[in-house]
Task: structure prediction
Amino acid sequence: MSEKIMTYQGMKRREMFTAYAFILPTFIGFLIFIVGPMLASFVVSLFDWNLLTPPKFIGLDNYQQLFADRRIGTVYGTTFKLAFTIITCNMSLGLGLAVLLDRKMSSVLRNFFKVSYFFPYVVSGVAIAIIWTFLYNRDLGPLNYYLGFLGVERIPWLNSSTYSPWAVVIADVWKNVGFYVLVFLGGMQAISRELYEAAEVDGATAWQQFRRITLPLLSPTMLFLTVTSVIGALQIFEQPQILTNGGPGDATRTIVLYIYEHGFRFFDMGYASTIAITLFVIILILTAIQFRLSRRWVFYQ
Result:
C-alpha cells in the first residue's frame, strides 16, 4: 500500500512540475513585460527626467503637479465620454449583428459576413486612422460627397469640437465591432438549443426567448467584453492622435495621448509616468467594481 501511495505522490509531483513548466514562459513574460514596466513607471514618477540629462530625484513633486494641472480633469472627462460612447456602440451594434448572423442562413454567407466584420480588427490601427482621415476630408472626402446628395452641407469632421469626437468614435467602432460580433456569436451558439425548443413549445415569442434565455445566458460573455472594452477604450490612442491630434482644443485629447505628449514631446518622463500611474489605478478600480457587481447579473448555464 505504501508503495502505491509513493508512486501516486511521485506522479502528482511530475504533473505539478509539468504544469509549472508550461506556465513558466508566460509567467516570465508577465514579469518582464507587465510587472517590470509598471514598477519602472512608478520609480520614474519620482524623478525629473527629460531623457537628455541624468534623472533627478524629486520625490512626490510630480504628484503635486498632477493635482495642480487644470487640464488633467478636462482630458479625463474627454476620455470617459469617448470610452462610454465607444463601449455602448460596440456592445449594442455587436450584439445586434450577432443576432442577425445567428439566424438561419447558408454557412458560406455566414462565413462571408464573419470575415467582413472581423477583417478591420486585424488591420493596424494606424492604417485604419489614415484611411478614415481621407474619408473625413471636408473637401475631397467620400463621406461629405455622398452626404451632399442628401442635402447635407460639408461637415468639418476633423476640425470641429462637435463632430471630431464622433469622427473618432466611428473610426474606432468600425475597426473593433467585428471582434464583438464574433464573441457574441460564439456565446449564442454555446447556448443549448433545447432551451429554445422548450420555450417554443410553451408559446414564447422570439423577443421573449431573446430576453429570457439569450440575454441571461450571454451575461458571462457580456462581462468579458465589458471588462476588456473598458480597459481598451480608456487607452484609445491611434485614432485621436492621427485623426485630430487631440484637437480642436482638448475635444479628442485622451489620457494616453496626454501621456504621450508629456513624455515624447515635452520630454517630461517623470510627469508622464505619474499620469500613467493614475490611469492604471482607475482601470484597476473600475475592473474590480465590474467583477464585484457581476455577482448580481451574471448567470451561468
User: Anything to note?
Assistant: The domain at 69-297 is CATH 1.10.3720.10 (MetI-like fold). The chain has 13 helices and two strands.
